[in-house]
């Protein structure tokens, strides 16, 4: 916003300036300014094109085909963009020239077999693509190119022969083309033409080099007048130039130098042009603000202000000096009591130029600048609060401003909200660019209080004066500074430990509103009043995050579900997505603290399974090769990073995820030991287990992951005590568990969960060796009370996970012993596979036919479509034993049939025979099953 | 018992007139102070035109005071207005458009006066009014019809904002309680409406989780055994989800029984439920049903988990004497709802074992395979013969397939018999 606003005002200033013809400060700026105003869209486009052409020519010179191709594509695009202008003006000659030259050049390279061999692979490839491309492309410009070539064939030939410097082909071409370029370019492009003319004038006056000519343009009065002359003559340029050509042809001795120069010029062309335009006024050259004796009134000060602002954004302007000047101006206006209106206006501009100090978007403010900026905003707020009769706004037109002291209220253009927002962004930038482990970071972080203070003041101000939109924006800023902070005071208060606050300051602070209340108020306002979706989405996410952080799981969950954010978050912009990821993670951790392991696992699954948690949370970039990300993207990504003090601990996150995966997965694995359809709940967890298994030597666990793996192994054996000691011990406490606010509760919950799940695992694993087992023994073994054991076992029985029933009079669990033996299990699996294959065949036929299937499948459709993922290629999943059985009994040809049927390629020709074999085989398999039993 | 009373919550969503029956009920049950109740009634009446009733209540409340003149004045006013409207409507024999309006006003006024039958007779524009009248008339059939009509209008209404529809749905949910718990088919419909219509379920979850009590009761007292298991599963999910916002003995009973399998506390809750049900205006009628079904639920779950149960313990859990319990179980076994035997020497019930052997499982799994493959083969054959028009060959193959398939179908049977 701020940028747009200021460029607009700049332009207005400039136009005004021209009207007033106010020239004493600006040396040659008016000329430049008029030029700038005159520069039309056409010129811009042409400049773009010429730039591209220049780079292509450079690339041609060094035979960098890849670069050439890339630039050429860009050129085509740029050309398309300026299509409308081309339609009006006709295709510019320099463009045609490039096309022709490029084609010639490529053909030449193509012919040169030797050179081609030497080229590296990339270049050679680019060459062939480019050649094809340009051939196709040039078809559209056939007539133009032909006419160009005709012209070329007469004049440059004469030139080259006379110059006699034809040894180097490349140079010849560039020199030629550049010479050729001049006249046409000038026809199209007045400003550049003038520059070229200057260059020409240079030559004529036999000055030494090009640099000087540039200086001329801006500095010396002589050349100024001369350039004016030239501009005057611009109408009959072609004539002038032709003459020059003639004269040049006569001066043979100059030719060689000219060539060199032409080359140089080609390189310096862009820079030279820029510099002319940037011949900005040197403000600091005028240390005195006003001439002595000038009566200082608001009109004069405003004039001065606009003067200073003129220089803004131009090359060569000393930005620091400009800030100084503005400060001085503020001082003067203060001394002379010109009223708050002017002061505010100057302050606005000071802050804006502070922001402008860094031209680069990625760079951050220097500490002193930052301090100054904070002070300035503070002062500005002071003034605004002290004087309620000041109206500020973005939409107050420059003309309707009322800066002078009068009866009417002041009206000043400018938006304090955007300034503060920008300040907030600058703060984030500073935090992003400071080393998080240094003292400096801590010092910088101390400023957060001030930032919050300013936002709070602004909030108060806007609540009375601002529109709802503005209020929403400032509320969001406030929320953004609140949501990630844990409210220790409220936490302590809820625990009833108020009396322990030590200093007075603490007491004072603890009297403030709970952050939960603030969040609630601000967010609800935004929900009700906001019109832009983005602010509301951010507010919801922050609200959920805040709830989750403070363990209000149900509120957080309900808000997440009701907002339906999960459905369309993928359409949001990356910062919002990062916020969403952070929220989901926080939600998961919250669920974990509440003992809702499954919810925790589900919430964290997406983030953890990708293995890019760091990146997804905006807490650092992953190392990737440059192909996936170039420097530009990296910069953008860097800008999205969350400052360190808002980070979510990644180790904690992973630990929470792995522990919840362990609590879910280990009993599941035990229950489905023989199940062919077993699916992994968490791939990540399995990966960790495998890593643990692969180690040749197992020492005591060191890292958090090793601890979890060791604990999982213990749990697999139903040994909850060891599991417990691995999960909760000194090391893990300091690494993970102590990071939770209510660490004791979490540990208790964890112990309980470990006991319960170990009990379940134990029952699953060892039920086959028991006939019956007393519940009392179990409750002793796992240190759980009897009703809990009873309830867990009942649940398992009801869900048919455990084939057993309770014997009430003796309080024992009686096993039914119906678990199939391993052979039986195999037979069951085999039967299941067969079913799967038949289903598969039917589906394949369905796909082919589209009619069949009314018989058996219709009602089962829903069922096996869900299992589709599994059935696809079910053959590959067959365990080794059943594979063996298949090969033994089905013979070679049936293999063929099987693979045919499973790979969904039912050939229509010998389908019949395949199916015969298939049927026979199936029959055999069924026999086999029954025979095995 | 006042802690579980929902009257205040429900009254928020009801019409003034619909609250009266609730208040009457409460005064009979004597949970609250009679005096306070009367006060409440008087407050309610102050905005209606039921002046006579108000005067009665007033006299009840302050027997020693004279009825205030404002009430008397209002009475004469109301009577005059009634007269006037009556005289306006009387001459309308033919229905004409411009009179409809007056008619409507008359009907509305009638309703305001407490003359419900009069209001319902007229074809009212306001379905709500009609519904309320039918409810107060206890005309359940008609009320049910009105309810469905009203529901359709609300659901099909695209004009109103989501917030408005939510509001209306909440009202409908509350009003419908009158109908559902009085209409014979109401308990099926209530499940259908509250649990399986996502919009209404959402309304309950966001606006009025206390309705879960009625939903739970309806599910438990539902007669349909086959559907019940699935319904219960869905209900348990909802109850668990909302357990942090709403809890009462009835929902807790379900939670104890189906989430924690804690039979002792389920038993305790059941006793509490009894007290709650007796004091609930809507549920008082289904008390018996509820207790009986709840017992059955407990027993059923118990049987599914246990292999051997002592009758005395069971009697204790079911809140019966041992003899009663034994008789009850015997009846269950005789009605073939239970596969069990009674060991009278030890006083145990022994459950039948119903595990499926692996043999059976394999047979189950492979039973249809052959037939399905055969069908597939035949279909392919058909397609091919269709393409080739080679009928002779097809017939040949068909017979071959037939042979193979018959072999197929027979073979498992032979083996199982072996």
TrEMBL record, chain A:
Its main location: cytoplasm. PROSITE patterns: PCI. It is found in: Cytoplasm. It comes from Cyprinus carpio. Component of the eukaryotic translation initiation factor 3 (eIF-3) complex, which is composed of 13 subunits: EIF3A, EIF3B, EIF3C, EIF3D, EIF3E, EIF3F, EIF3G, EIF3H, EIF3I, EIF3J, EIF3K, EIF3L and EIF3M. Keywords: Cytoplasm, Initiation factor, Phosphoprotein, Protein biosynthesis. Residues 644-820 form the PCI domain. The keyword rRNA-binding does not apply. One of its GO terms (biological process) is formation of cytoplasmic translation initiation complex. The gene is EIF3C. The keyword Repeat does not apply. This is Eukaryotic translation initiation factor 3 subunit C. GO terms for cellular component: eukaryotic 43S preinitiation complex; eukaryotic 48S preinitiation complex; eukaryotic translation initiation factor 3 complex.
TrEMBL record, chain B:
GO terms for biological process: formation of cytoplasmic translation initiation complex. It comes from the Eukaryota. The keyword Nucleus applies. Transmembrane segments: none annotated. InterPro entries: eIF3e (IPR016650), eIF3e_N (IPR019010), PCI_dom (IPR000717), WH_DNA-bd_sf (IPR036390). Belongs to the eIF-3 subunit E family. Component of the eukaryotic translation initiation factor 3 (eIF-3) complex, which is composed of 13 subunits: EIF3A, EIF3B, EIF3C, EIF3D, EIF3E, EIF3F, EIF3G, EIF3H, EIF3I, EIF3J, EIF3K, EIF3L and EIF3M. Component of the eukaryotic translation initiation factor 3 (eIF-3) complex, which is involved in protein synthesis of a specialized repertoire of mRNAs and, together with other initiation factors, stimulates binding of mRNA and methionyl-tRNAi to the 40S ribosome. The eIF-3 complex specifically targets and initiates translation of a subset of mRNAs involved in cell proliferation. HAMAP family: eIF3e. This is Eukaryotic translation initiation factor 3 subunit E. The gene is EIF3E.
């Amino acid at each position: 916003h701020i940028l747009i606003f200021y460029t607009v005002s700049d332009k207005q200033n400039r136009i005004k300036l021209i009207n007033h013809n106010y020239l004493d400060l600006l040396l040659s700026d008016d000329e430049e300014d008029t030029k700038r105003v005159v520069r039309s869209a056409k010129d811009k486009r042409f400049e773009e094109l010429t730039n591209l052409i220049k780079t292509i020519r450079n690339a041609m010179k060094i035979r960098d085909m890849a670069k050439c191709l890339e630039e050429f594509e860009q050129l085509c695009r740029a050309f398309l963009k300026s299509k409308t202008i081309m339609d009006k003006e006709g295709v510019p000659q320099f463009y045609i020239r490039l096309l022709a030259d490029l084609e010639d050049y490529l053909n030449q390279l193509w012919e040169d077999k030797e050179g081609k061999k030497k080229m590296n692979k990339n270049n050679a490839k680019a060459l062939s693509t480019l050649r094809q491309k340009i051939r196709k492309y040039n078809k559209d410009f056939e007539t133009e190119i032909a006419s160009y070539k005709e012209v070329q064939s007469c004049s440059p030939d004469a030139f080259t022969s006379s110059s006699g410097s034809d040894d180097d082909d490349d140079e010849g071409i560039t020199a030629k083309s550049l010479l050729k370029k001049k006249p046409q370019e000038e026809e199209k492009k007045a400003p550049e033409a003038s520059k070229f003319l200057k260059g020409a004038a240079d030559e004529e006056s036999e000055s030494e080099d090009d640099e000087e000519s540039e200086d001329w343009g801006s500095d010396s009065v002589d050349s100024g007048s001369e350039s004016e002359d030239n501009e005057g003559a611009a109408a009959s340029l072609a004539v002038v130039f032709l003459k020059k050509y003639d004269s040049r042809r006569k001066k043979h001795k100059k030719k060689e130098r000219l060539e060199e120069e032409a080359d140089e010029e080609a390189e310096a062309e862009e820079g030279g042009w820029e510099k002319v335009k940037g011949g900005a006024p040197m403000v600091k050259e005028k240390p005195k603000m006003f001439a002595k004796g000038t009566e200082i009134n608001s009109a004069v000060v405003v004039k001065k202000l606009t003067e200073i602002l003129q220089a803004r954004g131009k090359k060569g302007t000393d930005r620091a000096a400009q800030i100084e000047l503005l400060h001085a101006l503020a001082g003067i206006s203060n001394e002379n009591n010109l009223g708050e209106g002017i002061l505010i206006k100057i302050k606005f501009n000071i802050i804006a130029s502070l922001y402008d100090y860094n031209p680069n978007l990625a760079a951050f403010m220097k500490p002193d600048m930052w301090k100054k900026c904070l002070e300035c905003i503070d002062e500005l707020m002071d003034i605004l609060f002290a004087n309620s009769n000041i109206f500020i706004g973005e939409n107050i037109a420059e003309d309707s401003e009322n800066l002078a002291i009068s009866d009417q209220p002041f009206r000043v253009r400018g938006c304090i909200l955007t300034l503060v927002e920008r300040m907030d962004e600058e703060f984030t930038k500073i935090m992003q660019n400071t080393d998080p482990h240094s003292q400096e970071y801590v010092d910088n972080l101390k400023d957060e209080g001030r930032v919050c203070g300013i936002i709070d003041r602004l909030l108060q101000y806007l609540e009375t004066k601002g529109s709802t939109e503005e209020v929403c924006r400032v509320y969001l800023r406030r929320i953004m500074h609140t949501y990630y902070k844990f409210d220790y005071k409220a936490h302590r208060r809820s625990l009833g430990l108020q009396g322990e606050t030590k200093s007075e300051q603490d007491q004072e602070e603890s009297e403030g509103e709970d952050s939960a209340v603030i969040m609630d108020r601000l967010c609800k306002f935004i929900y009700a009043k906001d019109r832009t979706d983005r602010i509301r989405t951010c507010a919801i996410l922050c609200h959920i995050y805040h709830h989750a952080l403070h363990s209000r799981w149900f509120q957080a969950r309900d808000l997440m579900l009701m907002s339906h954010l999960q459905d369309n978050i993928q359409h949001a912009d990356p910062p919002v997505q990062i916020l969403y990821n952070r929220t989901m993670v926080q939600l998961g951790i919250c669920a974990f603290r509440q003992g809702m392991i499954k919810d925790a696992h589900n919430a964290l699954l997406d983030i953890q399974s990708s293995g890019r948690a760091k990146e997804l949370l905006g807490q650092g970039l992953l190392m990737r090769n440059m192909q996936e990300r170039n420097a530009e993207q990296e910069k953008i990504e860097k800008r999205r990073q969350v400052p360190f003090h808002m980070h979510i601990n990644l180790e904690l996150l992973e630990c929470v995820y792995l522990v919840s995966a362990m609590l879910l997965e280990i009993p599941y694995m035990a229950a489905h030991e023989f199940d062919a359809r077993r699916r992994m709940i968490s791939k990540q967890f399995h990966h960790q287990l495998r890593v643990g298994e692969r180690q040749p030597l197992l020492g005591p666990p060191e890292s958090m992951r090793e601890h979890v793996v060791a604990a999982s192994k213990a749990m697999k054996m139903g040994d909850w005590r060891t599991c417990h000691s691995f999960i909760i011990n000194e090391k893990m406490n300091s690494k993970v568990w102590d990071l939770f606010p209510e660490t004791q509760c979490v540990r208790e919950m964890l112990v309980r969960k470990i006991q319960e799940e170990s009990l379940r695992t134990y029952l699953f694993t060892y039920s086959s060796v028991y006939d019956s087992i007393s519940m009392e023994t179990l409750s002793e073994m796992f240190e759980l009370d009897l009703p809990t054991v009873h309830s867990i076992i009942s649940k398992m029985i009801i869900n048919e996970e455990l084939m057993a029933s309770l014997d009430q009079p003796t309080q024992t669990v009686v096993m039914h012993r119906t678990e199939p033996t391993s052979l039986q299990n195999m037979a069951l699996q085999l039967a299941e596979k067969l079913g799967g294959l038949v289903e598969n065949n039917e589906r394949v036929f369905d796909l082919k036919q589209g009619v069949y299937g009314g018989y058996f499948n219709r009602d089962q459709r829903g069922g096996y479509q869900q299992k589709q993922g599994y059935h696809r290629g079910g053959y590959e999943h067959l365990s080794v034993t059943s594979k063996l059985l298949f090969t033994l009994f089905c013979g070679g040809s049936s293999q063929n049939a099987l693979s045919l049927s499973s790979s969904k390629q039912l050939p229509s020709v010998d389908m019949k025979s395949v199916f015969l074999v298939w049927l026979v085989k199936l029959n055999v398999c069924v026999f086999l099953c029954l025979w095995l039993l | 018992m006042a802690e579980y009373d929902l009257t205040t919550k429900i009254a928020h969503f009801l019409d003034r007139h619909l609250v009266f029956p609730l208040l009457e009920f409460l005064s009979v049950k004597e949970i609250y102070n009679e005096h306070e109740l009367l006060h409440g009634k008087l407050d309610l009446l102050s905005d209606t035109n039921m002046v006579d009733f108000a005067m009665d209540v007033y006299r009840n409340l302050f027997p020693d005071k004279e009825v205030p003149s404002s009430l008397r004045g209002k009475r004469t006013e109301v009577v005059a207005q009634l007269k006037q409207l009556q005289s306006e409507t009387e001459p309308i024999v033919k229905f004409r458009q411009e009179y409809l309006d007056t008619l409507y006003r008359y009907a509305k006024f009638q309703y305001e006066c407490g003359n419900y039958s009069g209001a319902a007779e007229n074809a009212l524009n306001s379905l709500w009014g009609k519904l309320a009248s039918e409810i107060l008339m206890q005309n359940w059939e008609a009320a049910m019809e009105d309810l469905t009509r009203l529901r359709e209008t609300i659901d099909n209404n695209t004009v109103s904002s989501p917030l408005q529809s939510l509001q209306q749905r909440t009202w409908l949910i509350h009003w419908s309680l009158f109908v559902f718990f009085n209409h014979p088919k109401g308990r099926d419909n209530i499940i259908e409406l509250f649990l399986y219509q996502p919009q209404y379920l959402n309304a309950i979850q966001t606006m009025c989780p206390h309705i879960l009590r009625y939903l739970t009761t309806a599910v438990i007292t539902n007669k349909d055994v086959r559907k019940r298991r699935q319904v219960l599963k869905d209900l348990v999910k909802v109850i668990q989800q909302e357990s942090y916002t709403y809890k009462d003995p009835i929902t807790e009973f379900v939670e104890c029984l189906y989430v924690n399998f804690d039979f002792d506390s389920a038993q305790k809750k059941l006793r509490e439920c009894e007290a709650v049900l007796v004091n609930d205006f809507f549920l008082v009628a289904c008390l018996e049903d509820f207790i009986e079904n709840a017992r059955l639920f407990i027993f059923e779950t118990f049987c599914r988990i246990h292999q051997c149960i002592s009758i005395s313990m069971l009697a204790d859990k079911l809140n019966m004497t041992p003899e009663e319990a034994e008789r009850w179980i015997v009846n269950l076994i005789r009605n073939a709802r239970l596969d069990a035997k009674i060991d009278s020497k030890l006083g145990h019930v022994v459950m039948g074992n119903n595990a499926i052997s692996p043999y059976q499982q394999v047979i189950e799994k492979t039973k249809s395979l052959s037939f399905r493959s055969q069908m597939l083969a035949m279909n392919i054959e058909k397609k091919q013969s269709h393409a080739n028009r080679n009928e002779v060959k097809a017939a040949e193959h068909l017979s071959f397939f037939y042979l193979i398939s018959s072999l197929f179908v027979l073979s498992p049977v032979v083996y199982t018999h072996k």
